[in-house]
């Protein structure tokens, strides 16, 4: 196979593979004479199986946070044996959970061996590589936050380099001596550099911690996932302006073919999506109940809505409170308040006559219909 060089490449061991804008050529005769064929993954077709399959990360913090989220949505994952790779979610009929490496979840969605999956956006983008059959159902599951970022040394020739633009203009990088970047993201890395006009870049994989690569002389820079940035600083590395490839967090993804062609997948996806949205929307929200003296429910409501922070999701609920003699002198107000605004809201309630304030956390907030569900149907052309 011949590929034309365009100035940047990916190096694996002693091999350097260059991306090409030209089509590759191969000998059909040598292909037909080959005695051994290696098939990688499935063919993306819908198999005859009847179970709906969800792929979940098998190890690490991502695995723990994913099962915890599902548990909070009343979708607890049940394993007969913790060493088994298959499990059930009793609340979902005809449904299987398969524990896999995140990159294998994406690959098996493409091959048709899984219908749904939860992975990081970075993994989805790196291994999905723009495949049109892959769809993001929910793009913000609120955990696994990190960013894929370019980092360079704080010393030497990079001491005064603080942006991607400045890095690109350094005269050191030539076709014979490109900028060496160590990374595990061999799809996103070259694509990012090409999109940003960096022509002379060579990407290589490295065993162990990438942060050590520049100090060892293996690479000039690294492209890796960053959370707090502490590890970079401890290894005398720095992020640069314009060097973030993508912001990542956990996402729910699906196979378009499965959603459209496999019986039950779309309905099950709808249920999972509604449970996720209801729980995630409720995180950090509180129900606040207070009694307020007033002449009528309308007069009390007008007092409450005069403060925008007390309006709740769609406005306050105002109900009469009947005294021992059957007379109504107080009204009960129920509103939804964000956690960060709780104390401020309580002070405002007191200021307008509220008393006996009760606060309780919310578990779920169900909308009439989730916007993400409408968006999914639109994407599928349904």
Automatic annotation (TrEMBL):
Tell me the cofactors it needs.
Answer: Mg(2+)
Per its record, how is this protein called by name?
Answer: ATP phosphoribosyltransferase
Q: Which Pfam families match?
A: HisG (PF01634), HisG_C (PF08029)
Write out the ranges of the annotated region (Disordered).
Answer: 22-42
- Function, as annotated: Catalyzes the condensation of ATP and 5-phosphoribose 1-diphosphate to form N'-(5'-phosphoribosyl)-ATP (PR-ATP).
Q: Where is the ATP phosphoribosyltransferase catalytic domain?
A: 101-277
Instruction: Read off the Gene3D superfamilies from this record.
Output: 3.30.70.120, Periplasmic binding protein-like II
The GO annotation for biological process reads: L-histidine biosynthetic process
Q: Which domain of life, per UniProt?
A: Eukaryota
Entry's Gene Ontology molecular function annotations: ATP phosphoribosyltransferase activity; magnesium ion binding
Q: What InterPro entries does its record include? A: ATP_PRibTrfase_cat, ATP_PRibTrfase_CS, ATP_PRibTrfase_HisG, HisG_C, N-reg_PII-like_a/b, N-reg_PII/ATP_PRibTrfase_C
- Which organism is this entry from? Lupinus angustifolius (Narrow-leaved blue lupine)
Cell location: Plastid, Chloroplast
**Entry EC no(s):** 2.4.2.17
What range(s) does the Histidine biosynthesis HisG C-terminal domain occupy? Answer: 284-363
Q: What is the lineage of its organism?
A: Eukaryota, Viridiplantae, Streptophyta, Embryophyta, Tracheophyta
Q: Where is the composition biased (Low complexity)?
A: 22-34
- CDD domains the UniProt entry points to: PBP2_HisGL3
Which GO cellular component terms, listed alphabetically, does the Swiss-Prot or TrEMBL entry include? chloroplast
Q: What is this enzyme's catalytic activity, as reactions?
A: 1-(5-phospho-beta-D-ribosyl)-ATP + diphosphate = 5-phospho-alpha-D-ribose 1-diphosphate + ATP
- Name the pathway: Amino-acid biosynthesis; L-histidine biosynthesis; L-histidine from 5-phospho-alpha-D-ribose 1-diphosphate: step 1/9
Q: Which family does it belong to?
A: Belongs to the ATP phosphoribosyltransferase family. Long subfamily.
Top class in the EC scheme: transferase
Listed A to Z, the keywords are: Amino-acid biosynthesis, Chloroplast, Glycosyltransferase, Histidine biosynthesis, Plastid, Transferase, Transit peptide
